Amino acid sequence: MSQRIYLSPPDTGKTEKQALATVLDSGWVAPAGPEITLFEQDLARLCQREAAVATISGTAALHLALLSLGIGNGDVVLCPSFTFAATANPIFYCGATAEFLDSDATTWNLCPLRLEARLSAAAAGKAAAVKAVIACSIYGNCVGMAAIEAICQRFDVPLIEDAAEALGALAEGRAAGSFGVFSLVSFNGNKIITTSGGGVLLGKAGAAIEHARYLSSQAREPVRHYEHKSIGYNYRMSNVLAALGRAQLSSLEKRIARRKNHFQFYCNAFATIPGWQPMPALNWQDCNYWLSCFLVADFDQRERILDRLEAANIEARPLWKPLHLQPAYQQIKTHGGEVAAALFARGICLPSGSGMSDAQRARVAEVVLAV
Question: Domain 252-370, what architecture?
Answer without folding.
Answer: Alpha-Beta Complex (3.90)
